[in-house]
Fold each of these.
Amino acid sequence: MTQAHLYRGGRHEAESAPGRVYRCCACRNSDGRQLGARCPKLSNARHGTWAFAVDLPSLDRRRTMRRTGFATKAEASAALAHVD
């Protein structure tokens, strides 16, 4: 493989994390659905919490483990590292 094939979205494949870390909240829209990571108030650093999601190995279908409620991105990243 060439170096161009290994490069994806700002990192090398070998460096990519097994999951993702993001901010979300429990705000709801007018229909009553949670906005999650799409909340416009997340631009305020005091709004919402940090979360992680990781795809777990499965034979028949995709299983995603999600955990929310972390105060900082570092806490969510550390918890994600323990899942592996």
Amino acid sequence: MLDVMAGEGHDGEHEHARGRHLHVLVPPVLAVEILSPSSRRTDLVAKPDVLARFGCRHYWVVDPQTPGIRVYRLVGDADESGEVVMGEATFEVREPFEVSFRLSDLTR
């Protein structure tokens, strides 16, 4: 399950044991995961591969404890781990859309 998904292409919703669950038919433009201690390995190792195989071109992993963001981009058939922004730095990207904010604002 993802914490945030941007895009179109789900066929409705149904209740899942952990909450709302979407049936995704096409890759999202952006997937965002908020790290938690129980899912850290899955979110940093397994999900980038699964999302790359599905065709998701942008995957961000947010660590609210650091704070930090790791950016993955689909390059060819595989996810490429790009920049890691941490601490008081400003997170800025132009794709899949332009956004900029200070990471320290995530914990306010």
Amino acid sequence: MQTRIGRDHYVRVDTNDYSVHPDAIGRTVTVLTDNDEVIALAPGGVIVARRPRCWARHQTIVSRRDCAACPGPGAASARRCRGRTG
């Protein structure tokens, strides 16, 4: 599946949101899934996210590295990722 990365830098697979590195904001990425992981590829095949697949519903799976790289003012960036890191 292909999707454009919005300002919140997440991709949705089933009912779960997976963080993507903020460098991919505004780009179209290809999302690949299997039973074990979710991978997001930027143009040129660059991996911008590789997360373990979560089978629970309505979860948010975040990389601390993605949150640390959030653009914008610190408070707004922290708000987007608060309580979601793992």
Amino acid sequence: MRRGEWILQDITNFPGVLRARGHLAGCQFGGSGTDLRNLVPLYRQANMPAMSAIENRIATGIHGGEAVHYEVSAVYTKPSGIPDYVHLVASGNRGTDVDCYVHNVPRDEPPVCSSQTYGGN
């Protein structure tokens, strides 16, 4: 099986009731919900509350006038179209300090963070 076939099979077999469209750049700060470059398949529990709580905290700073540098990447540990983790990093001129990994699993699991904003885990 070729790589593209693995991806299609993995996404097709990803349970519909458990899945969410994970925005890499959150909709809270203008990330597109239709541009496929900004979307990855996530389990609902990874998307909300884990990832959305982090994004909301970053958005609060942005909407309050803070200049924030934000980077996010999907982390794949196997040949699949489904990321195992999402890594979010943000730093701002008013104290935003985020460095968190959200585990893409079908259960509630807190993000693993090493930043001061989230107190580290």
